[in-house]
Amino acid sequence: MLFHGIQKPPMNGASMYRLALATICAVIVGCGVASQPESIKTVAAFEVPLQSKADREEFLSVLRAAAEVEGMHVDAESDTDLGSEGAVSPNFKMTMKAAVWRGSTDDEAVASAMDQFDHLGQVWLVFSRGDSRGVPNNPARGDRRSNQ
Questions:
Q1: 106 and which of 18, 83, 85, 101 could share a cystine (Cβ 3.0–4.6 Å)?
Q2: Distance, CA of 135 to CA of 33 (rounded, Å)
Q3: Residues 3-55: pLDDT tens digits?
Q4: Residue 29: what pLDDT?
């Protein structure tokens, strides 16, 4: 190949490999760890033994009632969906997968409740710090805070 009067030898497989490796290394060096918002940091976690379907349904009922008082809602996977995920791989097996959300369009995850394949029936209820800016006062819980 002639480039401004200089003859360049064609790239062989080893040269291509070194070029690809150098490019990948340059990209990796340019990447860093993205900082996570404070609002998603875990502030509390509780293990709740829920061995039966009745236990899980009662737990979700209490969780939904508590969330509703705070102006939030709970989304939970159905038994059918959980079974489908568990059929893909034993590592995906769960008996509960639920989240408490602020906002009608799932604006902010406030808490989650789930178990995993290696501790079925031992559900972890995990709370995030959250971001309460702009959250309206809720007279149902006796909230007298200002919205500043």
A1: 101
A2: 30
A3: 566 666 566 667 777 888 888 877 777 777 777 778 788 889 999 999 999 99
A4: 73
Q: Put the strands of the sheet holding 97-102 in their side by side order.
A: 42-49, 122-128, 108-114, 97-102, 72-76
pLDDT digits (tens, 9 = 90+) for 63-120: 999 999 999 999 999 999 999 999 999 999 999 999 999 988 888 899 999 999 999 9
Q: Distances in Å between the alpha carbon of 19 and those of 2, 11, 81, 92?
A: 21, 10, 46, 39
Query: Which residue in the block uniquely carries the two structure tokens 């408490």?
Result: 100
Whether residue 51 contacts residue 121, with contact meaning beta carbons closer than 8 Å, is answered with: yes
Q: Where are the domains of the chain?
A: 39-141
**Cβ atoms 109, 128 nearer than 8 A:** yes
How far CA 66 is from CA of 27, 57, 59, in Å, comes to 47, 14, 11
- C-alpha span between 81 and 51 (Å, rounded): 19
Contact 96/125 with Cβ under 8 angstroms? no
pTM exceeding the 0.85 threshold for the entire prediction: no
CB-CB contact of 106 with 114 (8 Å)? no
